[in-house]
Write a structure and sequence with these properties.
Elements (H helix, E strand, L loop, with lengths): L1 E4 L1 E9 L1 E6 L2 E3 L2 E4 L2 E4 L1 E3 L2 E6 L3 E4 L5 E6 L4 E8 L2
Antiparallel strand pairs: 1-6, 2-9, 2-11, 3-8, 3-10, 4-7, 5-6
């Protein structure tokens, strides 16, 4: 899942680990609903190794996706809409 949206996302890791990519250029993006985009991949970007207890904040308009996820990985995301 490769997303680009109009809201800031906060991703919280509750268990396990993952490689999360932010930034770069979304490839073959399509708007799936107003302000939400999904693409096939991301070119470039910065990889972040996340583990239990980590939080990453992704600014609105920034492509992001989970590149690798451990089987026990459990995350939740809070979307903060811009006023």
């Amino acid at each position: 899942l490769h997303t680009l949206g109009a809201a800031d996302d906060r991703v919280f890791v509750q268990a396990g680990e993952a490689t999360y990519v932010t930034g770069g250029k979304m490839i073959d993006g399509k708007e799936t609903k107003a302000g939400e985009w999904l693409g096939k991949s991301i070119e470039g970007g910065t990889e972040h190794h996340l583990k239990k207890g980590d939080v990453i904040i992704v600014p609105a308009g920034t492509p992001h996706w989970f590149k690798e996820v451990s089987p026990e990985c459990n995350t939740f995301m809070v979307r903060v809409n811009k006023p």
